[in-house]
Amino acid sequence: MLPNCVDKHSSAWYCSIYRTRFFTEKNTETFTYKYQTYGVEQINKIVKPHIGKIIKSLREYRGMSQEALAHAGLFNRTTLSQIELGKLDCPDDLLMAIKTALNVELLPLLERERLRYKDMLYSWYDVISEYDTDTAKEMYEKLSIIKLLPHDVELNTLFVLFECRLMLWLKRYKDAKAIIDMLESRLDELSDIQRYHYFYVAGTFHIRNRRNKEALVFYTKALELTKYGLEKSIPLYYNIAICCQRLGFVARTIALLEEACNLHAIGSNTTIDFRIYNLLGKNYMKMGNFQRAKIFLDKAYEIALSNCNANENKDTKAYVGIVLLNYGFMFRMSKEWHSAFEYFDKAITYLDKDDANYLETIYQKTRSLIEMKNPLSCMTLLVEGVHLSKNSEVYTVMFEALKLMININNKSAEELETTILPYLLKNEYIYPALDYAIFLRDYYKTKSKGFKIKALEVSDLICTIYSKMLDGGEM
Fold first, then answer.
1. Could you read off the pLDDT of 329-385 as tens digits, one per residue?
2. Distance, CA of 1 to CA of 4 (rounded, Å)
3. Which CATH number fits domain 112-253: 2.40.30.110, 1.25.40.10, 3.40.630.30, 3.40.50.300?
4. What are the residue ranges spanned by the domains of the chain?
């Protein structure tokens, strides 16, 4: 357990407390280390201290005298004094006794301990990738002990990179941004593997803030580094696919996810398996390939239901609800209304009201009723959707669009065309924009000759969106 004075919320903590003690005396190894602590860039000379200096600093940090440490570890105080002065080497068995007495058993002071610690770091990386936040936070508490060794830049940098991934998953974006800024200032000093993780977390920061083009730039840089011997990452392919989907590149999204399936040892029923299958099903739907979509949604549903039955909680139930929502969406697209509503109603039983997917389910049910030309039946759903969307700008706009569609006339059609569509396209909500564009085109086609030009203009927009979906071209 780390001492209470270690600030768990400061990603750059290791750049402070031990620097004066460790690194002001003569040393055997010196190098320049540039870092940034929440916006303040600093450059220091970092040295690799003698093991005795590390022991002394840890002992003083714990507030223990030489006598107290020697008594706790059942060894000779004089020997400890000679080690701290650098006059004696510290045997491995004595070092372990000292670490145990100081309650820092995980601290990697020997090379074999560093290798074990690095293995634990990558185990932590895998846990974060699997979205097991409880285990990830427990491992964070244990692994953050590396902050007591600021001279070990390699392990500290990896720790901070993985810490950033955890901060992003916990939606602590301010802390994540501080880490990214600090690492950007030392990008030239990072190894290829560290640069890979930097590009990954920078991409994830942008995608979480829905800056999809910026995210794609960073993820692509990470992918480039895999050409030089680094292992190809399944989560990286998945995140690039998310960017492409949001930008409207549906065919490219499918290709990336299929590549991820080829790379991945499918069948382990992990969270990433679920996410890949679910996203594949969703995008095959958008391409109109319902048979292929159902194959992948069935696989995603099997994983989600199995995990929920094994450990039912808010997250595992949400995964089941997400697939049920996508089944409903698929049947809505194929105009099988009875099945669509059956799945939407099932989805709602698995989703919490504060879940964005619950709001999406209400939206899809309302949109289906409008498409069935049954506007009176959707008023209760519309009221609920408007209420729930108060904290979501995009859903506020989309429910406003539904209100315009219920009472469609020339004025509401113009508002859809001049306000709703530009907003959705600007903010890269491509598929809802396509849905409204098709609705508008069909409405304009029913009007007099004066609206034929409008119908053609909207048809051109629809063709542009379809072209983007198929070939990934820029709009």
1. 999 999 999 999 999 999 999 999 989 999 999 999 999 999 988 777 888 899 999
2. 9
3. 1.25.40.10
4. 13-107, 112-253, 409-475
∠66-69-71 over CA atoms, to 5°? 105
The class of domain 13-107 in CATH terms is mainly alpha
Q: What is the C-alpha to C-alpha distance for residues 346 and 295, in angstroms, rounded to an integer?
A: 20
Tokens (6 digits) for 279: 């996203």
Backbone angles phi, psi at 44, to 5 degrees: -130, 160
DSSP 33: E
CA 123-129-130 angle, to 5 degrees, is 95
Tell me the DSSP string of 106-173.
Answer: T---SHHHHHHHHHHHHHHHHHHHTT-HHHHHHHHHHHGGGGG-TT-HHHHHHHHHHHHHHHHHTT-H
| Whole-angstrom distance, CA of residue 35 vs CA of residue 186 | 7
Specify the pLDDT at position 267.
Answer: 56
- CA distance linking residue 323 with residue 319, whole number of Å: 7
Q: Which two tokens stand for residue 216?
A: 């794609």
Q: How far apart are CA 188 and CA 191, in angstroms?
A: 8
Task: Write down the pLDDT at residue 388.
Answer: 93
Quote the crossing angle between the two packed helices 234-246 and 250-263, to the nearest 10°: 170
Q: What is the pLDDT of residue 464?
A: 93
Report residue 404 CA to chain centroid gap: 35
Strand partners, 45: 32
Tokens at residue 331, please? 């049947």
| Tens-digit pLDDT profile for residues 167-203 | 999 999 999 999 999 999 999 999 999 999 999 999 9
- The β-bridge relationship of strands 30-37 and 40-47 is antiparallel
